[in-house]
Write a structure and sequence with these properties.
The complex is a heterodimer.
Chain A (H helix, E strand, L loop, with lengths): L24 E2 L19 E2 L2 E2 L2 E2 L7 E5 L4 E6 L4 H20 L2 H17 L1 H12 L3 H23 L10 E4 L2 E5 L5 H14 L3 E5 L6 H12 L7 E3 L4 H8 L6 E5 L2 H12 L4 E5 L5 E4 L5 H13 L11 E5 L3 H12 L20 H16 L3 E4 L15 E4 L6 H4 L6 E7 L2 H9 L3 E2 L1 E5 L3 H10 L4 E4 L14 E2 L2 E2 L4 H5 L3 E4 L7
Parallel strand pairs in A: 2-6, 8-9, 8-11, 9-10, 11-12, 13-14, 13-19, 14-17, 16-17, 19-20
Antiparallel strand pairs in A: 3-4, 5-6, 7-23, 12-22, 15-16, 18-21
Chain B lengths: L18 H11 L6 H13 L1 E4 L7 H12 L5 H5 L8 E4 L4 H8 L6 E5 L10 H14 L3 E5 L2 H5 L3 H14 L9 E5 L2 H4 L2 H22 L9 E3 L11 H18 L4 E3 L7 H14 L8 E2 L11 E3 L1 H15 L12
Parallel strand pairs in B: 1-2, 1-9, 2-3, 3-4, 4-5, 5-6, 6-7
Helix pairs in contact in B: 1-11, 2-12, 2-13, 3-5, 6-8, 8-10, 10-11, 11-12
The chains are: A alpha/beta, B alpha/beta.
């Protein structure tokens, strides 16, 4: 059969089989043909920073960002120096009075325009995101990009209603926001950071992760295209050194960081020295609790979605599963069967469920935890039929059973498609074990009993508790953590709080 | 597996279904991108799984003869346009009064089966004796398959034993003089059951009741290839993806517990080739990985265990096949009415 869609005679007549009931016979099989995303996106050979409405050149120290699915370089991007960061912060400070002084409805118009433009260029953003991050095109197309647009729409709507958001207080912009974002949802995290900050009248210096700068740079192009005044958004690319320069720059009034707990702690220390505002969205080891009265097929779907979404590279990934002892075997059987239907491979194929791990470093980290899990005596389960591409950073989705709470894989954030399955006997035990973690970002409860949902949800120390569902995101819903998962909320009314000073009518500030 | 009742009971007799997550899962199947060879294979599979149906008060002998002809050879111009002969559909589905016409039109060595709705279709609001007699007559007239409706009144009132008894009675009425059975399809009329919990309960109940007759007759696993079916097509909503998913899950668990294989027939509302492919993706991913003794591959990806109850679907499949071949859509009048 040719590649142009024309076909010759089918090789099998579906009715040519022996239809007698008892005898063995050839049965049905159906394999999906490759379904590559065909939209081509132009990537320039190199990108500089976007500062004060101007594009710089990549300059010294520039490095390549690569496609994790193929290991091919995509473009050269600039390594932001302290000088670059300083320029960006100055540009943001310069733009601040005019931007914060704009009538709120005018600020909103810019954000609405950006949201619309993201929608119009959605396919381009999705393809670029998949190229740079390794996530399946299905997810960048159906989750990342639509949610990014939704965040701009939602916060554009807040701009001229801010005066009513905090009764008795007058919200004022904080100033220049330094925002450092991770590589797991590059465009979406940029939207989470920029939309509320800009709606509240602040200006921003954004640093995308070193492995995934391309969509943030393209977003800067969109801002330019939409006529957002120079300096309102500045994008500086680079590695951790660039991030450190932003965090410690005295001109930055507010630092927002999403990423690892390890880096988050360093940032908190750096910011503590000078009193800038700070919000941190860090790691997690989020628990799922399945009770024996749960709708099991649906609970298993939720667990699968919770851990294998975006290759498990999700801060709120449901990476610990607690199953009531009476249904443990049943759940493991179902997980194994479902695991076998996950399609792992080329993220640019529209039927791929699990794509490539973001970088070789991350793949090594995940592989390290997988071997550690085996060494510590947990039982390893994987979909044996899965063959992985020979090039690119791929990891077989897997889970461990017979995991003890003291095992490393039950305690540390793996940030990969690895699930630890444990059991419990009573609801109290479930809550104790779920809360027994330095993290507290998200949790999932699976039960058909409403009273149990409310009881358990109130006892879990997690910023988000999903009941009979998982990974539901909405710009109107605040997201953030307890304990070492960080502080501050993003999204909703609570998310605005991080980007405003609340003046009381006397003029005193809080 | 012997013919005696299995000592394995379903682990949880009343399985609950979460409607939100079931709908989310069902929607995922519609996201698959089926292209090229896979699309042709899927469309041919769907065509061969069709129960080409006409269930109207105005059905005539002529119309049913035409239906039979189309069932055997869905498109006269297949070889001219596609370059190969299309498969026949799985069955024609008609009212009992027209079974004789089908027997005449399709002949004794028919490859296309004759399915007949019976048991006071579509409401089932008739005395049991009348429903059983309806069934016996259809079988005696030559029906290969009987599509029965359950007693929804009794089911919704919680008289589940009564519903199960009636299904057993109907299946016994499907037994021919030579001891063989006309295959039974139990229509749950899920549009009247409303909740997925009820759909699951009715599926478990129907599957168990049909198997009971296999046990008493000593038919070993995989058992008589009986079906559960969503809808009559006379009630809205008819077949939906979440409902079909829940029924497939019941089938999968029954197989896991007993080794017995039950078929699935969504009916009503599946009008386009694209929808049919969505359903096949669901079968492929919900039941595809299940290994079944005596089968090489997935039994539910064959017409033996999966059917579509539809009429307009047939011509849309033909249109899509022609488009895949030629890059052009045929006009509606290029295909005969089903």
């Amino acid at each position: 059969m040719g590649t142009n869609g024309r076909h010759s005679a089918p090789t099998v007549d579906p009715l040519a089989t022996d239809r007698s009931v008892a005898s063995a016979r050839p049965g049905g099989r159906w394999d999906y043909a490759p379904a590559p995303e065909t939209v081509k996106v132009v990537v320039k050979p190199s990108y500089g920073h976007y500062i004060g409405g101007k594009w710089s050149r990549a300059g010294a120290g520039a490095f390549a960002t690569i496609n994790p699915a193929t290991e091919e370089p995509l473009a050269i991007v600039a390594q932001g120096t302290e000088k670059d960061v300083d320029q960006a912060v100055r540009a943001a400070a310069k733009a601040l009075p005019a931007w914060s002084g704009l009538p709120a409805r005018e600020r909103a118009k810019f954000l609405f325009r950006v949201a619309r433009r993201i929608q119009e260029r959605a396919r381009e953003f999705a393809v670029l995101e998949t190229m740079d991050s390794g996530k399946p095109i299905k997810e960048s197309r159906d989750v990342d990009v639509p949610l990014a647009a939704a965040h701009f729409f939602y916060h554009a709507g807040w701009a001229d209603k801010l005066a009513y958001a905090f009764p008795g207080r007058t919200p004022r912009p904080v100033g220049v926001c330094g925002q450092v974002i991770p590589w797991n949802f590059p465009l979406l995290m940029a939207a989470w950071k920029l939309a509320p900050a800009l709606a509240c009248g602040n200006t921003c210096v954004l640093k995308p992760a070193e492995t995934t700068p391309l969509t943030a740079l393209r977003l800067a192009e969109v801002f330019d295209e939409c006529g957002v005044p120079p300096g309102v958004l500045n994008v500086v690319t680079g590695d951790g050194r660039t991030g450190a320069a932003i965090v410690s720059h005295p001109g930055v009034d507010k630092v927002a960081f999403t990423g690892s707990t390890e880096v988050g702690k360093k940032i908190a220390a750096a910011v503590a020295a000078r009193g800038a505002r700070l919000s941190l969205e860090l790691g997690g080891k989020s628990p799922h609790i399945i009770f024996e009265d749960a709708s099991l097929d649906q609970a298993v779907e939720g667990v699968i979605a919770g851990i294998y979404f975006n290759q498990g590279e999700v801060c709120c990934a449901g990476s610990r599963l607690f199953v009531q002892e009476s249904i443990l075997t049943e759940v493991i059987t179902r997980l194994e069967r479902r695991l076998a239907t996950l399609r792992v491979g080329d993220p640019m194929d529209k039927n791929t469920d699990v794509g490539a791990i973001n970088s070789r470093d991350q793949l090594d980290r995940v592989s390290h935890y997988v071997s550690l899990g085996r060494e510590e005596g947990a039982t390893y389960h994987e979909a044996s039929a899965t063959s992985l591409p020979t090039r690119g950073f791929y990891c077989r989705p897997c889970f461990f059973s017979n995991v003890q709470p003291s095992h490393t894989i039950a305690r540390e954030e793996i940030f990969g498609p690895v699930l630890s399955v444990m059991s419990f006997r009573t609801p109290e035990e479930a809550v104790t074990r779920a809360n027994n973690s330095p993290y507290g970002l998200a949790a999932g409860i699976w039960t058909d009993k409403g009273s149990k949902v409310f009881d358990i949800a109130g006892k879990l120390k997690a910023g988000v508790v999903w009941c009979n569902t998982y990974n539901k995101f909405d710009p109107a819903s605040p997201f953030g953590g307890y304990k070492e998962s960080g502080f501050g909320r993003e999204g909703g009314l609570q998310g605005l709080r991080a980007y405003v000073r609340l003046d009381v009518p006397t003029g005193r500030t809080h | 597996m012997t013919g005696s009742p299995p000592d394995v009971m379903l682990p949880r007799p009343s399985v609950s279904v979460d409607a939100v997550m079931a709908a989310q899962r069902a929607a995922e199947f519609t996201k698959r991108s089926i292209k090229k060879d896979a699309k042709v294979a899927g469309l041919l599979m769907a065509l061969s799984m069709l129960d080409l149906t006409t269930l109207e008060g105005k059905d005539s002998v002529e119309k049913v003869r035409g239906l039979c002809r189309k069932a055997v050879r869905p498109w006269d111009r297949d070889e001219a346009v596609l370059g190969y002969r299309l498969p026949s559909v799985a069955a024609v589905c008609v009212y009992p009064a027209l079974v004789g016409t089908c027997v005449e039109a399709l002949g004794p060595d028919r490859r296309v089966k004759i399915a007949s709705v019976a048991t006071g279709f579509p409401s089932g609001q008739f005395p049991l004796e009348v429903r059983l007699d309806d069934t016996r007559r259809a079988v005696a007239d030559g029906a290969d398959e009987i599509d029965m409706v359950i007693n929804r009144g009794a089911f919704l009132a919680g008289r589940h034993d009564e519903v199960a008894d009636e299904i057993r009675e109907v299946k016994r009425a499907c037994r021919r003089e030579d001891g063989s059975f006309a295959h039974l399809k139990v229509i749950l009329e899920t549009g009247e059951l409303e909740t997925l919990d009820q759909v699951r309960r009715a599926s478990d109940l129907a599957i168990r009741a049909m198997a009971d007759v296999d046990f008493e007759t000593g038919i070993p696993a995989p058992g008589t290839p009986d079906f559960i079916k969503t809808s009559t097509g006379k009630v809205q909503p008819a077949a939906t993806m979440p409902v079909t998913l829940v029924m497939l899950e019941a089938i999968r668990e029954w197989h896991a517990a007993t080794g017995r294989v039950v078929g699935m027939k969504p009916a009503g509302g599946i009008r386009t080739a694209k929808q049919a492919l969505h359903y096949l993706v669901m079968v492929n991913e919900a039941l595809g990985p299940v290994r079944v003794d005596g089968f090489d591959g997935c039994p539910w990806l064959t017409p033996d265990y999966f059917r579509f109850g539809a009429s307009t679907l047939c011509n849309d499949i033909l249109r899509q096949l022609a488009w895949l071949k030629s890059g052009r859509y045929q006009a509606g009048y290029d295909f005969s009415e089903a």
